[in-house]
Design goal:
This protein is of the alpha/beta class. It has 8 helices and 16 strands. The chain has 2 domains: 32-247, 3-Layer(aba) Sandwich (Rossmann fold); 262-369, Immunoglobulin-like (Sandwich). Helix content is 27%, strand content 26%. Mean pLDDT is 84; it is low at 1-29 and 242-270. Keywords: Carbohydrate metabolism, Glycosidase, Hydrolase, Polysaccharide degradation, Signal. Residues 1-31 form the signal peptide.
Length: 370
Amino acid sequence: MSRRLRTVLLAVALTVAAGLPGVAAALPAQAAAPVRIMALGDSITAGPGCWRAKLWHQLQAGGYTNIDFVGTQSDGGGCNPGYSYDFDHEGHGGYSATGIAANDQLPPWLAASTPDVVMMHLGTNDMWGGYIPLQDKLTAFTKLIGQMRANNPNMKIIVAQIIPMSAAACATCPADVAALDQAIPAWAAGLTTAQSPITVADLWTGYDAVADNVDGTHPNDTGFQKMANAWYPAVVKVLGGTTPPTTTPTTVPTTAPTTAPTTAPTTAPAGTCTATYKIASQWGDGFQGEVTVRNGSAASSSGWTANFAFPDGQQLTQAWNAQVTQSGTAVTARNVSWNGTLAAGATATFGFLASWTGKNTAPAVTCALS
């Protein structure tokens, strides 16, 4: 039901009540209006975009029932998940962030649906061919944020670090996705406000661009489930709730995996710090890795350091979510400002790109808390 219709019905009820003998004009307190949530995106959201159905189901099961998914589009129930869900969305197959911004397509969609919250997963269609500069994508994102706030100054905005694309789908796309996703947290931090906060949702953690996509770009059912799982804590945060820390993603997206992940966990002294090294994806002469540091002590930490030595001459080319340096084979990573404080049992993950030749053996990692 639209807000305008609810307002009209309430006004009529007040008028009738005021005209009846012995009836006061004031009505009992009304239930809070549902929070209107718009899923804004491309074909990953639209066709069929079944992460929306799974997310709806998770929210309902978690007690977040006073919500309304809104948008000018509907999937008509095409996901057939075996439970009811809200079909409405604002996904448009083939649309890009730069195109939506340049053509001012978002304002009428917002006007038609009047959302309180926008969940944005855009950027995939800006990757094809590798010809759109990163700054142009971020400029488009900034314009879209401005249009959301023009529609509703109190808009709550959730921006996704988008799911990875495989090299089979587009040779330049894996690295371009990684560059965009690496840039999003700082971009969001520069635009967020108390009145209209921007929350970043990491949709990469645990996502495999080959195994979780049907064509290197669009999710299969496992991919949709992983997307819903990643959206959930961000949406709950915006709705004012809490989720267990173990459900919150901590890393930025990666390039496309082409090999099964390999993991080489190593443990520091018991009860202090543990670190896990993972090759998330590998191709030609390059690969992407990640290291997860865990506070195994009973107290909160204020910082952490991880150390390892590449056994086969691998060379770092870039890193994110940590200050990472390499000297010869030795690599040292230190926390950045936003991920140094770890509660007992909490984790932080940093990622990197590197080159390799011949062999790519996973190193042992040690870590320390401060």
